């Protein structure tokens, strides 16, 4: 007997049949196996099946053999789920357009798939400000320490910062790609990709070897929204993929949060628009955000500046001098040299050591601040 998953795959091979029509087929016939054997007249009763679509089904269905197709697909794509599988993410299955095939690589945690471990999406611009980076790191850290899995898209900017911060905090993270799960994009994130495979998952609805395409990324945003209980938009201009994710989140009944910014800041215009449309403010009191997201507030130690001094490691005199010169706001490299009176090479070496210890963070433009 051919498994139901084979029919999910077979239907995707027919041109013009996408996730929404597949969902309607399943709801109308009960199973896609039944739909596969339905007559043209029976298929015509399903909303969205016009004359041209019906003709394509009749012409192409006769040339496909679901069981053979499924076996071959498994050989080329070793890890994937269909909605017929018990491990398929439950929250994603509740959406109107769940991916018929969901490919993955990494470490699966069944509690996430069953919706028992909460996942929160963090999205934003590829060119964030220091303000956006700082708050993305703090919030991702807080979420990871409180048992949330951080979901994002492994793009440059906010996505990258959220993944890294979650993993540095010892938490899990999940990246939804607009390529095949074996294709790293952007290529500069190859090290991040490898780290995610050991601390979470990469997912995609596209089969292996699928290259990046600009049409893929808006579509993958619905998966980020579907997997997540809430979407946090950190910084986003008015024309941003993050706003597409927020739109999907609203359609799926997910909560949307936005980081407020200044009225004249270009990266904040999208967030301000979301807030004007009813999104919830992300405020400085992170315990309030965690409470709204359903976590027990445990945010002690998120910022090094508020941690008790006795928790700080003992530093050498040189490292301590550089550490004392830093603040919670980012300072340029030249200013740190002036403050310490040390040689540029010594300061550079000390900054690298402190960053590896997790005590400071480097921002664009060779600026540094306490973590």
Overview of this protein structure:
It is a single chain. This protein has 371 residues and is of the alpha/beta class. 44% of the residues lie in helices and 12% in strands. It is built from 18 helices and twelve strands. It has helices at residues 4-12, 19-29, 32-36, 40-43, 51-61, 66-76, 90-93, 110-113, 130-145, 158-168, 190-199, 216-227, 241-251, 269-276, 286-292, 317-325, 333-340, 344-356; strands at residues 80-81, 102-106, 119-123, 149-152, 173-176, 200-204, 230-233, 255-258, 280-281, 331-332, 360-363, 367-370. The protein has a nine-stranded mixed β-sheet with strand order 1-2-6-5-4-3-7-8-9, with helices on both faces. The chain has a three-stranded antiparallel β-sheet with strand order 10-12-11. Strand 7, helix 13 and strand 8 (255-258) form a beta-alpha-beta unit. The N and C termini lie far apart (57 Å). Residues 296-311 have low confidence and may be disordered.
Quick take:
With 371 residues, this protein is α/β, with parallel strands linked by helices. The chain is built from 18 helices and twelve strands.
User: What is the CA-based Rg, rounded?
Assistant: 24 Å
Beta content comes to 5-15%
Major β-sheet annotation? 9 strands, mixed
Mean pLDDT across all amino acids: 89
Strand segment tally: 12
Q: Segments where pLDDT lies below 50 for 5+ residues?
A: 296-311
Please report the distance between the alpha carbons of the first and last residues.
57 Å
Strand order of the largest sheet: 1-2-6-5-4-3-7-8-9
Helix percentage: 40-55%
Number of helices: 18
Overall 3D form:
elongated
Structural class: alpha/beta
Name the helix and strand elements from N-terminus to C-terminus, one letter apiece. Answer: HHHHHHEHEHEHEHEHEHEHEHEHHEHHEE
